[in-house]
C-alpha cells in the first residue's frame, strides 16, 4: 500500500434474524443428532430469515447500524459492495436494492460472488478505491439468506447453514492503522464441490430442475474440509509475512465460521490461545459471506478489539475461493 492512502474499518454493524433453529429442531426434521452436529461441527443453533425477509432486508439492518456508529449518512457513501450467494434476484443486484433502501443516492453499487470468501473479496476491492483517492466511504456487506437455498431433507447440508448480515464501513485512516496486506485466491477446478446447480444460464429453472432439487445448495463436505484447512493456514501465513508480522503478533483471528475443527487446525498451527480467536458458529452456524463481518462486529461490541490490535481476517469457500487480510485496528478517520 506504499504511496497510497491507508484504509481501515471505521465502523461495523450486524443483524441476525430472530427465528432460531436448534439442533433439537433438526433432530425432528432429518436423521441426525445434537451429539453428531456438535462433535463434527461445533454448531448448536442457527438463525433463519422469515418468509418475507430477503438478503437486502438483512443487509439493510446491518448497514444502518454501521452507518449510525460512524455517524455517516447514507448520502455520503461513495460505493456499496454486497457479498452474497443468495441475492434477492439474479438482477438487479442486491447492492442496488440496498442503495435504494438506504437512500445512498450517490453511491455506486455492485455485488460480489465469492461465497464464504465474499466479504474478504469485498473489503479488498473497496480498499483499492479508497487507497487511490477515488472514493472516501465504501460500505461492504456480507449477507446470506442460505435457508432459502437449503434442502431441509438433506442432513449433509441442512445442519450447517444459517442466515445473517454483517457490515463494515471502510474509509481513510492514519498510516500506522488499517489494512496492511491482502491475499485472494481461487481454484475454479473445484467449483462443483460446492454449488447450486440450477437457476442460472447453464440449467435454467424448469419443472425437471425443481423436481431434481437442483436449486438447493450441494456440497462434498469432506473435500471442502481438506481444502479449507489447507488454504486457511496458507492464506494466513501469506498475509502475515506480507505485512512483516510473525504468528505471535496476532492479537485476534477472525476466521470464517464453517466448522470448529477447521478453526481448531488454525489455532494449533499458529499457537493461539482461545481469547485470540473469535468463534460464534455455535450460535449461528455457517453464514457464508456474513460469518466474518458478524464475528468481527460481535468482537468489537464485546470490547475484544482495541486500538492498534493486529487482526487477521481469513475466509474460504465456494468457487473455490479463499482470502485473508491483516488489519491494524483503528476507527478514527484520517482527514487530510
Ligand atoms: N447427522 C448425522 N450423520 C451425518 C450428518 C448429520 N447431519 N451429515 C452427514 N452424516 C453422516 C454421513 O452420511 C456419513 O455417513 P456414512 O459414513 O455412513 O456415509 C458420516 O456422517 C460422515 O460423513 P462425513 O462427510 O465424512 O463427515 P465429516 O466429518 O467430514 O463432517 C462436514 C461433515 C461437517 C460437512 C465437514 O466435512 C465440513 O465441515 N466440511 C467443510 C464445510 C465447509 O467448510 N464449507 C465451507 C464453505 S460453505 C460455502 O461456501 C457456502
Using the alpha-carbon principal axes, give the shape: globular
Ligand types: acetyl coenzyme *A
Structural domains: how many: 1
- First CA to last CA: what distance? 17 Å
- What is the number of helices? 11
Just give the CATH class.
Answer: Alpha Beta
Summarize the structure in words.
There is one protein chain. This protein has a single domain (1-336), classed as 3-Layer(aba) Sandwich (Peroxisomal Thiolase, Chain A, domain 1), CATH 3.40.47.10. The protein is 32% helix and 24% strand. The chain contains eleven helices and 13 strands. The chain has helices at 23-27, 34-41, 55-70, 94-102, 118-131, 155-158, 207-211, 221-243, 260-269, 281-284, 291-301, and strands at residues 7-15, 19-22, 45-48, 79-83, 108-112, 138-145, 163-172, 178-186, 194-196, 217-219, 252-255, 310-317, 321-328. The strands form four sheets. Strands 1-7-6-4-5 form a five-stranded mixed β-sheet, with helices on both faces. The protein has a four-stranded mixed β-sheet with strand order 8-13-12-11, sandwiched between helices. It has a two-stranded antiparallel ribbon with strand order 2-3. A hairpin with a 3-residue loop joins strand 12 (310-317) and strand 13. The site of acetyl coenzyme *A has 23 residues, from helix 2, helix 6 and helix 8.
Amino acid at each position: 500500500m506504499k504511496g497510497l492512502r491507508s484504509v481501515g474499518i471505521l465502523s461495523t454493524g450486524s443483524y441476525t434474524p430472530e427465528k432460531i433453529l436448534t439442533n433439537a429442531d433438526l433432530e425432528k426434521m432429518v436423521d441426525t443428532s445434537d451429539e453428531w452436529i456438535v462433535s463434527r461441527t461445533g454448531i448448536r443453533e442457527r438463525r433463519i430469515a422469515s418468509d418475507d425477509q430477503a438478503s437486502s432486508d438483512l443487509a439493510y439492518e446491518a448497514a444502518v447500524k454501521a452507518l449510525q456508529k460512524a455517524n455517516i449518512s447514507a448520502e455520503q457513501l461513495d460505493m456499496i459492495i454486497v457479498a452474497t450467494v443468495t441475492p434477492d434476484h439474479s438482477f438487479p443486484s442486491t447492492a442496488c436494492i440496498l442503495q435504494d433502501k438506504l437512500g445512498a443516492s450517490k453511491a455506486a453499487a455492485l455485488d460480489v460472488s465469492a461465497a464464504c470468501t465474499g466479504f474478504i473479496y469485498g473489503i479488498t476491492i473497496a480498499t483499492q478505491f479508497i487507497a487511490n483517492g477515488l472514493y472516501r466511504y465504501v460500505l461492504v456487506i456480507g449477507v446470506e439468506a442460505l435457508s432459502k437455498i437449503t434442502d431441509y431433507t438433506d442432513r449433509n447440508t441442512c445442519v450447517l447453514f444459517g442466515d445473517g448480515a454483517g457490515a463494515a464501513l471502510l474509509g481513510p485512516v492514519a498510516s500506522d492503522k488499517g489494512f496492511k496486506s491482502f491475499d485472494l485466491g481461487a481454484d475454479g477446478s473445484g467449483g462443483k464441490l460446492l454449488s447450486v446447480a440450477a437457476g442460472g444460464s447453464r440449467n435454467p429453472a424448469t419443472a425437471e430442475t425443481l423436481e431434481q432439487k437442483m436449486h438447493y445448495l450441494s456440497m462434498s463436505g469432506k473435500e471442502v474440509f481438506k481444502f479449507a484447512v489447507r488454504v486457511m493456514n496458507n492464506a494466513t501465513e501469506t498475509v502475515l509475512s506480507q505485512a512483516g508480522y510473525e504468528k505471535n503478533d496476532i492479537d485476534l483471528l477472525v476466521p470464517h465460521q464453517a466448522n470448529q475443527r477447521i478453526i481448531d487446525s488454525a489455532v494449533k498451527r499458529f499457537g493461539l490461545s482461545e481469547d485470540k480467536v473469535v468463534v460464534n458458529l455455535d450460535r449461528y452456524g455457517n453464514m457464508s459471506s456474513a460469518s466474518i463481518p458478524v464475528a468481527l462486529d460481535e468482537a468489537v461490541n464485546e470490547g475484544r478489539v482495541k486500538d492498534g490490535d493486529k487482526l487477521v481476517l481469513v475466509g474460504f469457500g465456494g468457487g473455490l475461493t479463499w482470502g485473508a487480510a491483516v488489519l491494524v485496528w483503528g476507527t478514527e478517520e484520517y482527514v487530510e
